[in-house]
Amino acid sequence: MPHQDQQQPQEKQDEKQDEKEREKKEEKGRGLDEKYRRNPLGFVSFALIIIWLGVTLLLQNLDLFTGTSEGWAVFAWGGGVIILAEALIRLAIPRFRRPLAGAFVWGAIWLGVGFGLWYGKWAVIGPLVIIAIGVALLVGRLVPKR
């Protein structure tokens, strides 16, 4: 008889463990859906950057660029444009409004990296990127919030 009493607490413990594992799996499955609901524009931008990466790699594999750095430059330009487009949409549509300084800074960095890779003149492009970041920070603070 005592053997059966010991099995019942063990069975309850196993059931609790199984329930916890099911809940974890459900939470993982809801992860992307929840992220999309909280920030649909950011999710779309991220997906577009992934798609742009695939397109750029395909073009590079088809030898449409003369050098590897040119392919990465095109990817960086496209990523910068996607990031800046997201920021402009957030600025224009109140429903999507969030702090924008970071988006403008990242967009400037991506564009600057693209120019640096394309032209290879980091001595000029590096400082220009830093200037653009400073301007974006100022604009982010000085533009009145609606």
Give the amount of beta strand, in percent: under 5%
Distance between the termini: 73 Å
Helix and strand run: HHHHH
Q: Helix share of residues?
A: over 70%
Q: What is the C-alpha radius of gyration, as a whole number of Å?
A: 24 Å
- Number of discrete helical segments: 5
Give a short summary of the structure.
This protein is mostly helical.
Write the layout of secondary structure elements.
Blueprint: H1 2-38, H2 40-61, H3 68-92, H4 101-119, H5 122-142
Features:
mainly alpha; about 0% strand; 5 helices; about 150 residues; single chain
Report on this model:
There is one protein chain. By secondary structure, the chain is an all-alpha fold. The chain has helices spanning about 1-40, 40-60, 70-90, 100-120, 120-140. Helix 1 packs across helix 2 and helix 3 runs antiparallel to helix 4. The longest helix has about 35 residues, at about 1-40. It is extended, with a radius of gyration of 24 Å. The chain starts with a helix and ends with a helix. The mean pLDDT is about 80.
